[in-house]
Each structure stands twice: as C-alpha cells, then as structure tokens.
C-alpha cells in the first residue's frame, strides 16, 4: 500500500521531487520536495484508493471508532468520504473558534466519551494535528488516534506525537516515496539519500505544518 499510494501521488503531481531545482517555501527554505495531497480529490481513481485505504486503516487499527473528525481544511473532504465508506458520523475541527454564532471550533455532533479518529492529509512536525487532538480531548472525546495520507517521518513529528500520546497510521511516507521515485525514474538513484538527509536534518522552524 505504501508504494502504491506513493506511485499515485507522484503520477498526479501531488508530490514533486526536485533535488537539483529546489522549491522555495514561504519560510525561504530551499526544499527538494513539495506536497499537495488536495490534488487527490480531483483524480477519481487515486481518490478512490486513498479513501478506501484510509477506511482500511480505521477498520484495522481503530475498529471501535464511532466518529471521524477531519482537520481543517485539508482533512475535511477525506474525512467525509471515508466516513461515507464506513457509514460513520463525521465532523471537523476548525483551526480556531468562529467569531460569530455559537463560536464553535468543533463542527458536527460530538458527545462526551465518543471514540474518535482524526483524519489528516499530511504529517510533518505534527503540530496542527496535535492541536486538533487536544481540542477534541478538551471537548470530552476519546481520541483513539490519527489516520493520514502521507507522513514525512520527521524525527520531531514522531517525538511530538509520542509525547502527546497520539498514534498515527499513514498510507505512505517519504521513505517509500523516494524508493518509488527512483524506481520510476522521477529522480536519480543518488538523489534518494539527499532527499532523506534534507528531511532528517531540517530544523523545526523550517516547517510550517
């Protein structure tokens, strides 16, 4: 599954790898990778594999799940489609409370004690994901864990998840991606370690998500 999803992401341009012509992030960092999993929504065949893959992760790792909650905004559509496949209730968590109406941060019905799985598109430092988990816990939810499309496997992200007591299961990861990219001719074989070294040596402040 990791290799299949990695191949899908590469084929639709959801992930670009350019070790020789790095992308410039908003922070100014020169990065050999750019990831936009939103593009899976406009590629029906890939979208189908992603959403059924997320559903399988939920069934396999969190069979007692009662509600899916998407992260705002990238995880909302994936949570909705996955919830439809699993016939589960679904909602989402805003990045901040609304400044009008009921000032909700959590949208959708959530009862205290309900077992929740968070749906995320991308995990790097895991900061935004953990904020969502904490908001749900504060609301009384029993957060079982997170399912996501892709993770960079950053050391800082893994440490943060462990410290917060959050379990994440991703469909694919950077290690699988560079292997597939090399095999499929997207990058040269010698570029694999350069890309992984960028991931492993990048400081926290360089990452936005």
Outline the structure in words.
The structure is a single chain. Helix content is 39%, strand content 22%. The longest helix is centred in the N-terminal third of the chain and has 18 residues, at 44-61. The strands form 3 sheets. A 6-stranded mixed β-sheet has the order 7-6-5-8-9-10, with helices on both faces. It has 209 residues and is α/β, with parallel strands linked by helices. The protein has 7 helices and 10 strands.
Summarize the structure.
39% of the residues lie in helices and 22% in strands. It is of the alpha/beta class.
Outline the secondary-structure elements.
Layout: H1 2-11, E1 15-17, E2 23-24, E3 30-31, E4 33-35, H2 44-61, E5 67-71, H3 76-86, E6 90-93, E7 106-107, E8 115-123, H4 127-138, E9 142-151, H5 155-163, E10 168-173, H6 174-183, H7 191-201
Parallel strand pairs: 5-6, 5-8, 8-9, 9-10
Antiparallel strand pairs: 1-4, 2-3, 6-7
Secondary-structure element string:
HEEEEHEHEEEHEHEHH
Q: Based on Cα principal axes, name the global outline.
A: globular
Residue-averaged pLDDT: 90
User: Which band does the percent of strand residues land in?
Assistant: 15-25%
- In total, the number of strands is 10
CA radius of gyration is 17 Å
Major β-sheet annotation: 6 strands, mixed
Unreliably modeled segments: 98-103, 204-209
Q: Which class best fits the helix and strand makeup?
A: alpha/beta
How much helical structure, as a percent, in the residues?
25-40%
The spatial strand order of the largest sheet comes to 7-6-5-8-9-10
Number of helices, counting only DSSP H or I runs of 4 residues or more: 7
The end-to-end distance, rounded to whole angstroms, is 24 Å
